[in-house]
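Hi support team,

I'm opening this ticket because the web form for multi-chain structure prediction keeps timing out on my end. I have pasted the exact lines I submitted so you can reproduce it. The total is 278 residues across two entries, so I didn't expect it to be a heavy job. Is there a limit I'm missing, or should I split the entries? Thanks in advance, R.K.
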Amino acid sequence: MDNIFEINDKIIESTIEIFTGMVMMEISVAGDPLTTLGPLENSITGMVGLAGVHKGVLAVHFPKQVALDVTGSFLGMEVDDINADVQDAIGEIANMLGGNLKTILSDRGKDIMLSLPSTISGDQYSFTSQAEVDQVILPFQTPSGIFYVEVELER
Amino acid sequence: MAKNVLLVDDSSTMRKIVSRSLRQAGLDFGEIYEAGDGLEALAMLEKESIDIVLSDINMPNMNGIEFLREKANRPAIKDIPVFMISTETGDDIIGEAKSLGAIGALKKPFTPDKVNEVLGPIM
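Hello R.K., no limit was hit. The queue was backed up. Here is the completed structure from your submission:
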């Protein structure tokens, strides 16, 4: 992989597959990829880290209402606040996307290690990397708003 | 006879989704038990009458590969079949799981149709 943008199409395909097949929600690409994202407000982020021949992070950023609707559709139940179910569901979406990213970057599997998923949420926070990274942020449209899939890979 | 299934995944969401997919796939199964990691799964296997295990790989405390290795050393449970359901589908990792006794693997994400296609023959 010479350029992080080469994997955009595969990440888009993978995200749509996860939402259509498992979350049971139709989504679409919401414009061109971004290279930066401002502070996240009233949101939840799920993320997994990659280590090994490729180091970096995959994160999914959901505004609160989108996260609630996604979790409700995923689990087939009403969800009215960020709780353990929402954290687990958003973490699992990040986990599946991270697994697919790992497969995109290496089809063997043992030269890249995937961390367990984690989540952060809050009224306002920023998601930035300390390292020199190539970064891409892909926006997706759901019925209740836009969410972002972000990939950062160390140069 | 309907088989009792043990779902092993640290994500409660994924345990619910797999359970729902088994029902939607129309597969004939008995009780569904749940465990959050390999350690809990070993304890459950020694306590309950379980016919097949569907296990994630990437889990805290004891992951799916360590679970297979430990299970193989316990005569009372070593022959219970384990099927991997994971985002981890690299050839090296699935090869290692199969060398430790896993009978197959299903990649996340999956659909009920895929669950039926892959798990139907062994259920």
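A quick check on our side: Residues 84-105 of chain A form the longest helix (22 residues). Let us know if the file doesn't open in your viewer.
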